[in-house]
Amino acid sequence: MNKEQKLSISQQKALLERSEIEKIPFSQLLQKHGFSYDSLQYVDNPAVDEECMRPIKTLDDMEKTAGQIPAVSFFSGAGGLDVGFSYAGFNNLISIECNEVFCNTLRKNNPDKMVIGPPDYSGDISKRKDIAELLQRNGISSPFHGVFHGGPPCQSFSIAANQRFSKDGNNFKRIGFDDEEKGTLIFDYLWFIKAFRPLAFLIENVEGISDFDSEGRIQAAFADLTRCGYTITKPQIVNAAYFGVPQNRMRWIVVGTRGRTPIVLPEPSDKAVPCGSVFARSLEGILNHITREHTATSISRYMLLEYGARDKLGRVDRLDPRLPSKTVIAGGTKGGGRSHLHPFSPRTLSVRECARLQTFPDSYVFTGANARQFTQVGNAVPPLLAYRFALAIRQAISEYFI
Question: Looking at the DSSP assignment, which residues form a beta bridge with residue 318?
Answer without folding.
Answer: 341
